[in-house]
Design brief:
By secondary structure, the protein is an alpha+beta fold. The protein folds into two domains: about 5-65, no CATH class; about 75-150, Beta Barrel (OB fold (Dihydrolipoamide Acetyltransferase, E2P)), CATH 2.40.50.100. It has helices at about 5-15, 50-65; strands at about 20-25, 30-35, 40-45, 75, 80-85, 100, 105-110, 115-120, 125-130, 135-140, 145-150. A four-stranded antiparallel sheet has the order 4-11-9-6, with no helix packed on it. A four-stranded antiparallel sheet has the order 8-7-5-10, with no helix packed on it. A three-stranded antiparallel sheet has the order 1-2-3. A hairpin with a 5-residue loop joins strand 2 (about 30-35) and strand 3. It is globular, with a radius of gyration of 18 Å.
Length: about 150
């Protein structure tokens, strides 16, 4: 599993108010539990309960830093379309991770039915995550940016 798939799982949890989610695919199992910073990923090379596997899971859980994300807000897509970080392919992105944005500032463009729609921030804060890649399709209500309000 890659980081994008893990982010999608977290978004799915938040959107559906789930406390825990567990997915197993191709011998890789990942479990995310809300309320704790426990992210466990194990490759099933050893039978369940094997001492080596138990040690690996404990080590991974201890390495995950605990963060307080309770005050973070999301800038969500108001429509279905194609997400663009910049006004043209050769231009710089509207915003970067770590940048402070203001209310009314354009953060991206969503193309829908050949129309370019500027998406403006409704909050002032610092961009802490941008889960959508440039030129990717987005759904209505999908998180485009995560912002820590200032």
């Amino acid at each position: 599993m890659n980081l994008k798939e893990i982010r999608e799982m977290i978004t799915l949890m938040n959107e559906n108010d789930l406390a825990e989610i567990e997915i197993e695919r191709e011998g890789t199992k990942i479990k995310i539990r809300k309320g704790s910073a426990e992210i466990i990923e194990s490759i099933r090379k050893f039978p369940p309960g094997h001492p080596i596997e138990a040690h690996r899971l404990t080590t991974i859980a201890e390495e995950v830093p605990k963060a307080d994300n309770s005050n973070r807000k999301e800038i969500k897509s108001p429509m279905v379309g194609t997400f663009y970080r910049s006004p043209s392919p050769e231009a710089a992105p509207f915003v970067e991770i770590g940048q402070v944005i203001e209310v009314g500032q354009v953060v991206c463009i969503i193309e829908a039915m050949k129309l370019m729609n500027e998406i403006k921030s409704e909050i002032r804060g610092k961009i802490v995550d941008a889960p959508v890649e440039n030129a990717q399709p987005v759904e209505f209500g999908q998180a485009l940016f995560t912002v820590e309000p200032l």
